[in-house]
Structures are given as structure tokens and as C-alpha cells.
Write a structure and sequence with these properties.
The chain folds into two domains: 190 residues, Medium-chain alcohol dehydrogenases, catalytic domain (Quinone Oxidoreductase, Chain A, domain 1, Alpha-Beta Complex); 142 residues, 3-Layer(aba) Sandwich (Rossmann fold), CATH 3.40.50.720. 26% of the residues lie in helices and 22% in strands. It has nine helices and 15 strands. The radius of gyration is 20 Å and the shape is globular.
Length: 352
């Protein structure tokens, strides 16, 4: 089969590999559409920087790894312990990061607990926007911020800041928070604000704050939106100097600010935590989120079926696997706003 491996730059090389084999708890999926994420270019770039804190951690990445983790396609084969899925099922899945069998390929490998069924009404393109970003939001909100679950929603006002509300992780966090009756949701966004706005409920105090007005005005707007209430929960999907300054100024002492990057800044007296979505596949330890992600993959699948949950806006990039390199360059140059790049594998030149 054809598979793309990611290198620093970003650069992409197409190689030939055998179709992967599942272990007892995995599924092999014929990939119809692969999604993409900023980490697909960031990790190879980090791995190439001698002296970076993660230089040794990512040593295997320097030779090239298929970084694709968002799978949408048809089940090809299942392990002997897999009972929920069978060959021919339409599914989406979150691939284990840095493991063999990534989604930039004709066939990919996923654990059954991070795989979910797709109704016929959900396109593979939409489905490919969900797995990594959706589960990142799940781990951030329900593991690190310990917010109430959608099936046991909040009964009291619970202000939540989502900094980067129009990013895929931010938008999924808002959708999930709505289902958990978390309000007011204060979304911080810029040119993608119009997209995030549609998921907010102004009758419950939800609003968008435009960070382009500058950090001091952003701080004042957030405080106004909170109506004097303490803000104890925030999710930062951007993690820049400005977002750190704003959140340090508005989150109450002892509150929790969760970050989607590996090294959270000092936000004392608030508590800073960071989300590793790889915890969806982590065995053991305090951050083992396998059960949490198993539950939410089923919840997402049902939400898609009932049309109470949806994916992120997407742009289909041309060329299939051959289009991954240019798309990742565009991600690196911040050209994507409120959109995820996806790839139809069958569009790859030379495939039958």
C-alpha cells in the first residue's frame, strides 16, 4: 500500500508498505479520508531541533513517521477481541500517535476503543475532522478541568473560557460544554469568530470576545461577560504570550487553565495543566483516559446518528497523499481559520 511519512520542513515522502495487521483489540481500516492536525508538522520540526526538550522523545520521528491520526473509512479487518465492529462498517477512529499504521495511507490501524460508527448521513470528510480534535477537547474538559458530563449536566452557573474558540479543539469544546450545560461560555476568537458564535447561547450569557482588540480590552470584556462571577475553568488552545497574560489576569486563584501544548506556562496563582491526547491510548497512571475516550467515542457516534453532534468545517485538498505536504505548509503559515484540511486517499495519483 501507499503511505506518506512526515519529515521536518514540512516535507512528505510517499513510500510502499505492507497493509498493517491488527492485534487482538485493533481494527484495520481502509482509509477513505484522512484528516490533518497542526502537530503533523510541529512534531517533525521539533524532532529536528537538537537541544529541544523533546529532541530525544521524538528521536524515531527524524527518520520519518506517518503522522496522520484522523481516520475515516471502511473496516477491513478486526482483531479477535473486537465485537463492536466488523468488515464493511463505516467508521472513524483516532490512531495512536507515533505508532505504525497512521491515516496518511491506504490502510490504517486503530484501537477499537477509539473507533466509532458513522451513520450514512455523515460524510467521511466530516468524520475525518473529529477524532483527534474531538478527543483532545474531551480530555481537556472532563479529565483535566473535571467539568460535569453531558449525561449528568451542570446545575449551577459555571463560567468557562475557551481561548481559540474557532479552532477545531475550541469549537468541539464549546459543543461539548453546551451538552454539559456549562454557562456562560466565553469564547475568545478573531477572524473565525462567526463560526464559533453559532454554537453559543446568548440567553445563557455565552458570548464571543475578539482578541484583536488587544489584551487589556480582552481582559475587560471577559470580566464583563462573567458578570462578576469567579472564573475557575479555562481552555487555551492557542498558548501564546498574549493568551497567557489574559488568562493569568482573569482566572481566579486556584482555578484551572488547561493547555493543548506540551509545556504549560506559569499561571500562578491559577493552576496550569496540559492535555496530551495520547492519554486516550495510555495504559496506567493518573492520566490514563482510555475509558473516558471509549465512552465519548460511543457518545459521539450516537450524536452523529441523532444529529445532535457534528464535525468541523473542512476543505478537501487536492492530490490525496500527494497534497499533504502543501496542506501542512499552509497550516504552518496559519492559513487555515475555522477549517480542517482533509484528504481523499483515492485522489492520490497512481492509485488504481
Amino acid at each position: 500500500m501507499k503511505s506518506a511519512i512526515n519529515l521536518a520542513g514540512p516535507a512528505v515522502k510517499i513510500i510502499d508498505l505492507p497493509i498493517p495487521e491488527p492485534n487482538d483489540d485493533q481494527v484495520v481500516i481502509k482509509v477513505v479520508v484522512s484528516g490533518s492536525n497542526p502537530k503533523d508538522w510541529k512534531v517533525p520540526d521539533i524532532a529536528a531541533v537538537d537541544g529541544h526538550p523533546f529532541f530525544e522523545r521524538y528521536s524515531q520521528v527524524r527518520e520519518g513517521v506517518n503522522q496522520g491520526d484522523d481516520i475515516a473509512g471502511i473496516v477491513e479487518k478486526v482483531g479477535k477481541n473486537v465485537v463492536e465492529f466488523k468488515p464493511g462498517d463505516r467508521v472513524a477512529a483516532f490512531h495512536e500517535m507515533l505508532a505504525p499504521g497512521g491515516s496518511y495511507a491506504e490502510y490504517a490501524l486503530a484501537w477499537s476503543h477509539t473507533t466509532f460508527h458513522l451513520p450514512k448521513e455523515t460524510s467521511f470528510e466530516e468524520a475525518a475532522t473529529i477524532p483527534l480534535a474531538g478527543l483532545t477537547a474531551v480530555v481537556a474538559l472532563y479529565h483535566h478541568l473535571a467539568l460535569p458530563f453531558p449525561w449528568a449536566p451542570a446545575k449551577n452557573a459555571t463560567p468557562l473560557i475557551v481561548y481559540g474558540a474557532s479552532t477545531a479543539v475550541g469549537a468541539f469544546a464549546i459543543k461539548l460544554a453546551q451538552k454539559s450545560n456549562i454557562h456562560p461560555i466565553i469564547g475568545v476568537a478573531g477572524r473565525g469568530a462567526h463560526y464559533a458564535q453559532q454554537f453559543l447561547d446568548s440567553s445563557k450569557g455565552d458570548c464571543i470576545v475578539d482578541y484583536r482588540n488587544g489584551p487589556e480590552e480582552t481582559i475587560q470584556d471577559i470580566r464583563k461577560a462573567a458578570g462578576g462571577a469567579e472564573i475557575r475553568h479555562a481552555l487555551d488552545t492557542i498558548v501564546l504570550e498574549e493568551s497567557t497574560h489574559v488568562l493569568r489576569s482573569v482566572v481566579t486563584s486556584g482555578g484551572n487553565v488547561n493547555h493543548v501544548l506540551a509545556s504549560p506556562p506559569d499561571l500562578s496563582p491559577a493552576v496550569a495543566t496540559n492535555t496530551w491526547v495520547s492519554s486516550a491510548h495510555q495504559e496506567g497512571g493518573a492520566d490514563d483516559c482510555r475509558d473516558l475516550c471509549f465512552l465519548f467515542c460511543r457518545w459521539i457516534g450516537r450524536g452523529l446518528q441523532q444529529r445532535t453532534f457534528s464535525g468541523h468545517p473542512f476543505e478537501v485538498r487536492s492530490g490525496g497523499l500527494e497534497g499533504v505536504q502543501d496542506a501542512l505548509k499552509d497550516l504552518k503559515e496559519n492559513k487555515a481559520s475555522a477549517v480542517k484540511y482533509v484528504f481523499r486517499i483515492a485522489d492520490t495519483p497512481g492509485l488504481p
